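Aggregate trends can hide what the representation actually does to any particular protein. The sequence in question and its structure tokens are set out directly beneath this paragraph.
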Amino acid sequence: MKTLKNEVTSVDKLKEDNNELVFSYLTLRNLIGFGGVSLPIALAIFPSRDSEYYGFEPSISDYFYTDRGDILVVILCVLGAFLITYSGYNWKERLLTFIAGIGSIGVAFVPTMQRCKDCLNSVHTNSGGVFPKLAGTAVHFIFAATFLFVLAILSLVFFTKGRKENCFNTDGTLSQKGKRNIVFKVCGWIIIACLVILGLYFIFKPDLKGFPVIYVFESIAVEAFGLSWLTKGQTLWSDGEHYLLKGLKGLTAKK
């Protein structure tokens, strides 16, 4: 069974090397990664209202009720669509990306409770999302936690798969694959750590005097998720020349 899995992985890797899966795999991975990295930044730059949380909203989800509500919903839904349609190396990976995609869309469709009374710049204000009766309930937090937790598992378990010897060069130094595996593990554990910290925060509810602890640790987790997928798409620590440059050269050569 293990030999069969290695053969399947090797075939897929060969297809990637031969540009057969470049746009269906690497590009989709990078789009997912860029979506994750851009989300907290797009929400936080140049806020339209003053906030008692050092200019930020209490959490990423709270931007649903601000002028950034459309940005939040669009990015989450696009990420969800990308994750649902992503084809992993086996059914387990496909199932996990499907669950993560549902989690992402679920966060957009079932928002958190509206906390700011002066959030009047969004079409989502007082709407409660697609399922208003569920807004602000535990369902929102289940979607959000599932989304991040599954992404952590993907990074820690599935992205690091491959033959151990491929992680080292002939001189014993780390190969690009080995470096990517380190990034995957660091990103995965960062996401897990952020979830644990947020869980403790919700349990003990310390008074941090307006510090947006939920937004900060959600953002760190989302940035780690984005970095992991950009690395998986070989925009970072790629094997040789970036695949887009390779493809461009191939098109130029054909002309």
In short: Helices lie at 2-17, 22-44, 69-85, 91-109, 138-158, 176-204, 213-232, 243-254. The first helix runs from residue 2 to 17. Residues 18-22 have pLDDT under 50 and may be disordered.
